[in-house]
Amino acid sequence: MADAVLAGMKAHPLRSDAVDIGEAVAEDQKFAKMATGFGDRRIVDWLWGEQLPRIR
């Protein structure tokens, strides 16, 4: 499914540079995690301050 969504985004002239940056998986802890450059995983901190989406 991610491939179809990415292909649809890339078809739009303003999103031709769209890339897949991760995956969503079901987990008991319910925290967002990211992979580091060292191959480790760390929890993504909660937003603080003005909690608006970072849309450009």
Please outline what is shown here:
This protein has one helix at residues 2-11; strands at 33-35, 41-43.
Describe the structure.
The chain has one helix spanning 2-11; strands spanning 33-35, 41-43. It has 56 residues and is of the alpha+beta class. It has a domain at 23-47. The protein has a two-stranded antiparallel ribbon. Strand 1 (33-35) and strand 2 (41-43) form a beta hairpin. 0% of the residues are buried.
Topology:
Elements (H helix, E strand, L loop, with lengths): L1 H10 L21 E3 L5 E3 L13
Antiparallel strand pairs: 1-2
Strand order of the largest sheet: 1-2
Helix content: 10-25%
Largest sheet: 2 strands, antiparallel
Rounded Rg = 15 Å
Q: Give the integer mean of the pLDDT values.
A: 83
SSE run: HEE
Q: Strand share of the residues?
A: 5-15%
Q: List low-pLDDT spans.
A: none
Number of helices: 1
Shape: extended
- Distance, first to last CA: 25 Å
> Helices and strands: which structural class?
alpha+beta
- Total strand segments: 2
